[in-house]
Structures are given as structure tokens and as C-alpha cells.
Queue: 3 jobs
Job 1
Amino acid sequence: MALAGITAGVAAADPLAELDDAQARAQYAFYTADERALEAIANTIEQLEVPTSLATIRLYGAAYARWKLAQLYLGGVGKGEPRGRRNESIKAAQACQVHVAAALSMDSRMSEAYVLDTACAMVLNGQRGSDNGSGNSSGKGKVPPACARNKSLRMALELAPQNPRALLFEAICLRPASTAASTAAVDRLRKVVAAFEAAPPSRPGVPDWGHAEALLLLGENYLQRGESHAARDAIEKALVIAPDYRRAHDLLDKVDTRPQ
């Protein structure tokens, strides 16, 4: 039974499978920048009835969908864009944090929830996070404010030091604002990619997002350093994982048009 066919208040026949399918759909909708589909998925997850044992997973899935939706909204903000897009991104990020707080009230040691809390805080600070680099607006050489003040990332790293998603946001937070990526920033991102590669195979109910985003961010950092061949390699690896990743295709086009 397709997730989109589940009506509000009706329990899923296999709720864990439905939740896993929902996160996969949310990832795909984000990669293809399909706001309408992602909005529908977020609404469905929020209305899905699940056993108590899966309540935290459902809340996590709802938070993830709202975070990715907030990123899409924020990505549309710019000159000539309606102010409402920023307002929509704020509302989505706030909804993400509400779901995260509810999940942590049930399981205060859920490291993945702390990672999402960090991600949503970055959106509220005007940063898109793992999609396109740090998005730092705090000034040259400074750590992004949302990272500097965020306790959730520290908790995520304390609870699961090798969690590749936590390591990804740590790398984003430690990257200073500048026109060219530093060697240290590239090295950190290479370690993050290695952590994703070393992670065990995904299991039902366990988050598995972030690998393609880490590779894209690494490619972007390489490109900022003028290392076009390394950038292409990282971006193409991201596209192996997520062939329809629109931002990866856009960045690959930049590599192709940059003088060698």
C-alpha cells in the first residue's frame, strides 16, 4: 500500500515499512526540489498512526521531512523572491523542532534527533546546512552562530561520536566563512565521507541520509579551491547515490563550465 494512499487516522498495515518508505520519499522529493510532494509526505507522516514503540521514529521522520522542506523554502529566498518564502522556511523549521522535542521527551538519548535539532536551528539562523555548505552569514572567519550556540550537536557527538550525520554538521559548523575552502575543511569533509562509507548497512527504522549531501559539500569545497577534477569525482559519487539530485547536477555544470 502506497504511503500517499493512507488517510489520516488510519493505521498502516506495516508501520515501520511505511515510515522507511516515507523517509525515502522525502529524500527523493528534496533531491528533485519537489516542494508539493514533500509537503504531502510531511503531512502524511504527521497523521500516520503507529504503535507506541515506533512513536519516536515517526516523530523523527516528521522532523526530517519538515527540515528538508524548510531547506527548499529557504533556497528560494533571494532578490525578487517573496518574503513569505523565508517565513515558510521558519515555520517548517519550527515544526521540525517541535517534532524533535517530542521525540527527545520519549528518548533523551536519541542522538539522531539531536542532529536534526542542529539542522533545524541552522535553518532558523538563515543557513541551509548540509545542502550547500555552511551558509555562513556571520562574517569572515567566524563560526556560524547557530553552531556556536547549539548544545544539540555536542549531545549528538557525545552520544554517538562516529555518527556520520553528526560529524557532517560538525564539519559544517567548523568551516569558517571565506571565499575559498581551507585545507582543514576539506580534510574534515573527507573524514565525514569516510565515516559514511564505513557505516553499517542501513536497517529498518534507522536514518541513512547524508552521504550524498556530504559528497556534494566536499565537491563544492574542492571547486572553491580550484580543484576541478577532485570536485567532479566527489559530485559524480553523490550522483551515484542520488541520481536525481538537482543541486549536484547544477554543481557539476559549474565544474564543466569552469576553465581548466
Note: The chain has one domain: 13-253.
Job 2
Amino acid sequence: MNEQNIALETASLGKRFGRKWALRDCSFALPAGRVTALVGPNGAGKTTLLQLAAGLLRPTAGEVRVFGRSPYTDQIAALPRLGFVAQDHPLYRGFSVADLLTMGRALNPRWDQQTALARLEKLRIPLDARAGKLSGGQQAQVALALALGKRPDLLLLDEPLASLDPLARRDFLRILLDATIEQGLSVLLSSHIISDLERVCEHLVILSASQVQLAGEIDEILRAHKRLVGPRADPAAIASLHNVIEVSHTERQTTLLVRLNGQLFDASWQQQDVSLEDIVLAYLGQSQDNSTAEGALSADGSAAAKSEEEVAR
């Protein structure tokens, strides 16, 4: 990908709050014109990543670029190209919907009042209603309309579906898909709901334990990952050639979820396709196991360091 085709790029990006890293050594590139899913457990660093990309936080380490520009050192060039919807859809509760549109028009040089109005009218959201009186689904749609009214090139969505019922989620995703087609948007959508992401996303980033575990085109990820089922065996032989993500055993059988590096020649293994949810859960489980092991090592290391310090004293 050349720089013109990259909507969002991070290089060794990190953010620390006090002694705790909320995001660490995060590096990936998102293709322009695609809808990308950002998946990870609570506390993985998803919100921190999105806030860094939106210029709301300054990195502790590394850098983030939006269409080649920094959102915190080159705000004039970068921020008009960004739209951001936070998880709780923050709106001025005392403002009417019409007031919010007026504010959007006053603050954004690329504002598209006609399109924002058309979206809200299509959803039958009254312009004279106070934001605080709207349902959760209506608030999410108003927040999306305001973000799209900026005519952004990159739209960042921080779990906007989390508190919505299935019907409201469907309507939100339909409006989002229509907008991506009409405006040629690049979208980074954070969500826990894998079934919704499969409907709209073409690219995937898995974030866990404050680091990127996997990033790529969803079709390629699905092709590369397989479940292998065979007689009970040590997975070391497979692991020497392919990336073993998950291992389970019964008394007579071993099941592996692997990312293949080329063709599998061992006929003793039966290959099966896996779902996107299978892949996501396997990577999250793997990173959780690694994090637990590293935490134990870190605790031992901290104790040793303290002991040495006391001796020095």
C-alpha cells in the first residue's frame, strides 16, 4: 500500500497512564475506502487507540497518521478529515436536534447540512426534540448524522452499537453502509458483536493485552486459518511450520486452530473451515494466556528488583 491508499497508520504507537500502558507497540495500516473492524476485550486499548487517532490524546511513544498527517501536530490538515462517534454518543442534552445541526454547520468547514437533514428525516427523528429526550437508538443516529455531516474521509466509531437493541443496530449499520458507498468513506468500527461486523466489514484488527494480535483482509484471514483435527499428538511438528493459535485435546483426538504458512502436507490432519468468531476468540484466548504468564514473570521480576534495591541501600 502506498501512502495515498492508507487511511490510518500507526508505528510503535503507545500510550501510558501513570505506570500502566493502555496501548503498546501498536503498528498497522488500514486501507482507504474500506470498513475495518476493531475487536478486543474490555481494557484492550481500543478506546485509547481511537482517541489517539482522533487527536484527543497525545502518544507516549510512536506515532499515528491520518492520510499521512498527524492528528495532534497537524490538526488543521488532519481533523477536518476525521469523524468520531464515542460509545456513549455524547450530545448536549439540552440542545434540540436542530440546534445540534446548527452547531455542526458552524464548527465544520466541510459541513453538509442537506445530507444530515435528509438522514434524520428519513429516520423520522423530530428536529425540535431535545437530545436528552431521545431513545438510545435515536441518539446514536443523531451522533452518526453529525459525524457524517462533517463529510469526513475517515470515520472512527467506538462501540456505537453496544447499548442498542437489534433493530436499532440494523438501522445504524444500514445508514453507515449507505454513507460509505455514497461518500467513499474509510471506517474503523469497534464492536464486540462479531455477527454485525461480518455484515459490514472487509478488514480486521484484533487488539488484546494492549497490542495488535492480527490485522488484515477478512477474506484472506478466513482462507489462511483452518481447524485441524487428527489423532492425539504433540502439536510441535505443526507449530514448526505453521502458526498454532489454539490447542485442545481429548483422550484420542487433538484439535488445532492454525494459521497456515503455505500448504499442509500431513495427511493425518483433517482440515475444516472456521468462522470469523472462531478466529477472534482463539486470538483473544491466546493473548490472555500470554498476558497471564507475562504478569507472573513481571511480578517475580519486580520482587527481585525490589530485593536488589534494598540490598543496595
Note: The longest helix spans residues 276-312.
Job 3
Amino acid sequence: MGAYVLRRILLMIPTLFGIMAISFAVIQFAPGGPVEQVIAKLTGQGGDAADRLSGSSGDIGGTNFDPAGGEGSSKYRGAQGLDPEFIAKLEKQFGFDKPPLERFFMMLWNYIRFDFGESYFRDVSVLDLILEKMPVSISLGIWITLLSYMISIPLGIRKAVKDGSSFDIWTSGIIIIGYAIPAFLFAILLMVLFAGGSFFDWFPLRGLTSENFDQLSLGGKALDYLWHLALPLTALVLSAFATTTLLTKNSFLDEIRKQYVVTARAKGLSEHRVLYGHVFRNAMLIVVAGFPGAFISAFFTGSLLIENIFSLDGLGLLGFRSVLDRDYPVVFANLYIFSLLGLFVSLISDLIYTWIDPRIDFERRDV
């Protein structure tokens, strides 16, 4: 197993390099970079990102500048009439005075040491920014994963036992409908119905806690926290449990038809003993081993739109705003961290397989 783990870790290096290289190349052709963001601010067309960087249109990067002054052409859209020397200082401030390859390898060298630099438009390091937003995304990821497994496993087992019955048919219909409805669309429906839209005003629309959270008792804090999470979790769990439910059902059906189950029943064991004493461990192998991957998926990808809809200040909302602002240090740091964690979680899932079922030996297979 040690040789297999070593091979997998070594394969992570070219995989991660490829992810970062492709993303970096795509970014080079994307219009509206950080320099253009500031230029747009100077010419009266900027948004929030340029506002946060500049503070005022006359002082950027410590350089006093009159946007009406200066002549010359520039490769940046909207930069006509701006002083080329100022544009050069702005490029240097963002690191764009170096060739793309040099910037790429400098970025990789810094990322290997987990040095992600500072945000372009926020006066804080990227790592501190990510750590600040992480509790919200961790809360969503943990609760989505736990709730989906708590629903999926009992439901999947029941569907396997009642395979072909009316219960199996109508629950499959509900699962298919739930899986087909996009989480963000269901979230908007919940917001309209229960969060002060057109009907009821029962749930809050912003944040994980209320403004008076610190003044509440311990029980009050727990209720307030769950009150804020009710709608986002409902929207996310709707489709999250579908795959695990069907996976659990199919795993149990496959095990139930095996000879050892027939033998156990022939010995007079109760159905409960057969299911949970013999079938459960073998059937749940693939489901339990997929737990880390399910958590990472819910943690990093499932909550992006939900965080935006319900104004939850987590990693999803941070990544979305960073892309809009062209805050490249935050964008690439998120991509690097998420990709690295995803690769390690894939390895952990394989190791869990071997821990649950020692018969599995990955060293005898090609990586």
C-alpha cells in the first residue's frame, strides 16, 4: 500500500500543475483584468473592485494622477489619454510588468510554500481572507453531508427491501424530481414563499446568525443558527441525497442476491439480523468510502449559488466576487487549495476502501 500511496502523491504534481497552467492560460485571454478595473474607475466606468483599490480617482498605488492628463495609446481598453508612465506603475503594482511565464512560475513557487500573497482589492492576505470565510462553507458542507446521509441510507435500505413495490416507485419519483430541480431555483422558491417574498416572512435572508447573537443564551444561539440555516440547507439537501439513496439501494440489492444471504436466511436468522448483521457492512462499502468526496463536493461546489442567494459570506460568495472583480490572487488561491484538497480526498477515499474491506488491494492494479 505504501508504494500505491507514493505513486498517487507523485501523480498529484503533474495533475495540479496542469490545472493551474490551463487556468492561468485562460485568464490571460479574459478581458477586464485588474488594470482595466482601475482604468474604468478613473474614467468613471468602474465598479466596487476599483473603488476598494483606489479609494479616490486621484490616488492609485501611491501615485497622484489626473485622469484627464497625458496622451498616448495603450493595450488596455479605455486607457486612451492616460499617462503611459502611470499605466506602467499600475502594471508593476499588480505584477503585470513581468512576462506571463515568469509570473506563472513565480506563482507556483509561492503556492508550494503556501504563500498566496495579498488580495488586489482588499487590504488583507489571501490566506487570512479564505480562513475568515471558511466557517460558513464548512457549516454548509458538514450539515449537507450529514443530512443527506441520514436521509439516504435508511431510505435506500427501505427501497431495496421493498424493491418493485408502490413505496419504491413513488419514492423514486420524488427522488428523480428532487434531483432534476436545480438547487438555486428551489432556493429562490423557498425565499419567495418563506423569507418575506410574496407569502410568509418566517426565515431570515442574510448571514448565519442574528445581530443580537452574542446576547442570546446557549440554547437561543443554537436555535438562531439553525433558523438561519433552514432554507439554505433545504435547498441544497433536496438534490444532494438522490445519488446516495440510489447508490445505497443498488448496493443492498446486489448483496441481498448473493449466496451468503440465502444461507443466512436458511439458518433461520431474522430479516433484521440478515440486513444489518451481514449485508450492511458489505453494501455500505462504496457509500461510506465516498463520504469524504461527498463532503468536499458539498463544501466547495454545492454552495456557491446558495451563498449568493442567501447572502452567506462563505467561500462560494468570495470566489464569485473575486472572479467578477478579477482579484486573481484570491481566484488562483481558491483553485489551488480546492484542487489540492480534492486530490488528497480522492486518495483518502481509496484508503477507506481498503480499511473497510481488506480484500481490496490497489497495489495489484494499475494506478
Note: Residues 53-73 have pLDDT under 50 and may be disordered.
